């Protein structure tokens, strides 16, 4: 089992939804909200590479968050 943490202040929960749906053929997931962080636990299905899936899932969440970001609501620091 691998645990990934996504701060909801940085990552869209909808992007996490999309990622879990896309990667469902390759892994089983548990999801929990804890102190403003989405915790995703994944276990690769037999024959799948768990570290690879974890990395690709995290990249997918990032990309889906960026794709869904409205530039008018992003505050520059």
CATH architecture: 2-Layer Sandwich
What is the global morphology? globular
State the order of secondary-structure elements, H for helix, E for strand: EHEEH
Structural class: alpha+beta
What is the distance, rounded to the nearest whole angstrom, between the alpha carbons of the first and last residues?
36 Å
Low-confidence stretches: none
Which CATH top level class fits? Answer: Alpha Beta
Largest sheet: 3 strands, antiparallel
Q: Count the strands?
A: 3
The strand line-up of the biggest sheet is 1-3-2
Strand content: 25-35%
Helix amount, in percent? 25-40%
Which fold does the CATH topology refer to? Alpha-Beta Plaits
Helix count?
Answer: 2
Number of domains: 1
């Amino acid at each position: 089992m691998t645990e990934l943490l996504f701060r909801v202040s940085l990552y869209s929960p909808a992007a996490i939804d999309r990622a879990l749906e896309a990667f469902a053929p390759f892994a089983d997931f548990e999801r929990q909200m804890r102190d403003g962080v989405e915790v995703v636990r994944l276990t690769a299905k037999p024959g799948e590479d768990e570290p690879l899936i974890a990395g690709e899932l995290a990249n997918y969440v990032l990309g889906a968050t960026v794709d869904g970001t409205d530039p008018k609501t992003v505050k520059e620091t």
